[in-house]
Specification:
Blueprint lengths: L4 E6 H15 L3 E5 L1 H5 L3 H10 L4 E4 L2 H9 L5 E4 L8 H6 L2 E5 L2 H14 L2 E6 L14 H9 L4 E7 L11 H17 L5 E3 L3 H6 L10 E5 L1 H4 L17 E13 L4 E2 L5 E2 L4 E6 L16 E4 L2 E4 L9 E6 L12 E5 L6 H7 L4 H7 L6 E4 L5 H7 L1
Parallel strand pairs: 1-18, 2-3, 2-9, 3-4, 4-5, 5-6, 6-7, 7-8, 8-9
Antiparallel strand pairs: 1-10, 10-13, 10-17, 11-12, 13-16, 14-15
Helix pairs in contact: 11-12
This protein binds pyridoxal-5'-phosphate.
Pyridoxal-5'-phosphate (PLP) binds next to helix 9, strand 9 and helix 10.
Family: Belongs to the alanine racemase family.
Protein name: Alanine racemase
InterPro entries: Ala_racemase, Ala_racemase/Decarboxylase_C, Ala_racemase_C, Ala_racemase_N, Ala_racemase_pyridoxalP-BS, PLP-binding_barrel
């Protein structure tokens, strides 16, 4: 079957990024975060590649993702980052999924479940300032003691999440770290490891992962080659893993005054060559790119004109006299090699790169590649 839109997933780049992450982490061990279908890159192929490259710890957001990993033969530890429901704890035992205890209620449920269903490995999450999940540092010692005394419960990690890790020098992040370290000094003996850093912290805050080998870091974005702020020093060590390509489905010449797409938000200023491209917001192309985004074609950039539709997007190839000679079926690059970077597109769409990678829809096939391929060879592939 031919697909007008697809994404290429460069597994070689994933391995390269993992090496860079490891180099930065030093003695700390990475927990590879593969939630949300590995940020859109495909849960199982990404996890298998990482496991083959030596990753021993994975993290997901939903129990269904953990089960999918186990069914695919992932043998490393799998940490459920999201809030588990008490009803899910039996399945966590059955699939050997580690649970994040992020509320007093869940701690109670774990203490009730372990003697009933079997051994449960848990991480205790404290809220030091993220304002999302976690127990308060003040109530933590009591809860940890209770977990520690419950047969069948193993305390694995103490963790917290940073709110501003991608802002170098932010004083709030230091406050969060201090709160965490203070608690760690108090209760650290009960745990095997602790983990605080995410991808932002990996580039801005070595003190959040670098002090000893009892530290781990939960790394997602950096593995896929993106950071929330691409201008962070060192971010250029990473290579983007996803490339979004769609094919031209029609090319037409239109007279001056022709309007393009819903709402007639763009009017041809003269004779124009317009290409209709087979990807739209139903594929994960932000509608926000209407009249403001660009795509790559033949090594040049062309503007998106008119409203992005559900299945199609129009681009302006220019004056018919000078427009490039393009054929139906030719690929254009929405982001990745041969087009704008995902960071540029994210800026136009007023979002962050991994909202775009997560947005690549299910109907957009993932094509896994070991080596980098040029635009022309992926045409043959198509
Ligand atoms: C998603 C997530 C991460 C990974 O963050 P990145 O910035 O993608 O590295 C780490 N910790 C928690 C709790 C998360 O939810």
């Amino acid at each position: 079957m031919l697909h007008p839109a697809f994404v290429e997933i460069h597994l070689g780049h994933l391995r390269h990024n993992l090496e860079q992450v490891r180099r930065r982490l030093g003695p700390a061990e990475p927990i590879a975060v593969v939630k949300a279908d590995a940020y859109g890159h495909g849960l199982v192929p990404v996890a298998r590649t990482l496991q083959e490259a030596g990753i021993r710890h994975f993290a997901v957001a939903r129990l269904s993702e953990a089960v999918e990993l186990r069914e695919a033969g992932i043998t490393g530890s799998i940490l459920l980052l999201g809030a588990a429901f008490p009803e899910d704890l039996a399945a966590c035992v059955a699939h050997e999924v580690e649970v994040t205890v992020s509320s007093p209620l869940l701690a109670e449920a774990v203490c009730a479940a372990a003697p009933r269903y079997g051994p449960l490995r848990v991480h205790v999450k404290v809220d030091t300032g993220m304002g999302r999940l976690g127990i308060w540092p003040e109530e933590a010692p009591e809860i940890i003691r209770r977990l520690e005394q419950t047969p069948g419960v193993t305390l694995v990690g103490l963790c917290t999440h940073l709110a501003t890790a991608e802002q170098p020098g932010d004083p709030f992040v230091q406050e969060q770290l201090e709160r965490f370290e203070q608690l760690w000094r108090q209760v650290g003996d009960a745990f095997a490891v602790r983990h605080v850093a995410n991808s932002g912290a990996l580039f801005t805050l070595p003190s959040s992962y670098w002090s000893d080998s009892r530290q781990q870091a939960r790394i997602g974005a950096a593995l896929y080659g993106y950071l929330p702020r691409p201008e962070l020093p060192g971010a250029d060590e990473l290579r983007p893993v996803m490339r979004f390509v769609a094919c031209i489905v029609q090319v037409r010449t239109v007279p001056p005054g022709t309007t393009i797409s819903y709402g007639r938000t763009w009017t041809a200023p003269g004779w124009r060559r317009i290409a209709v491209v087979g990807a739209g917001y139903g594929d994960g192309i932000p509608r926000r790119l209407s009249n403001r985004g660009q795509v790559g074609l033949h090594g040049h950039r062309f503007p998106i004109v008119g409203a992005v539709c559900m299945d199609m997007t129009m681009i302006d190839l220019g004056d018919p006299e000078t427009a490039p000679d393009v054929q139906e079926g030719e690929p254009v690059v929405f982001f990745g090699e041969g087009g704008p970077s995902i960071a540029e597109v994210a800026r136009w769409a007023e979002t962050i790169p991994y909202e775009l990678s997560c947005a690549a829809a299910r109907r957009v096939p993932r094509r896994y590649q070991e080596q980098r391929q040029s635009v022309s060879s992926s045409v043959e592939n198509f």
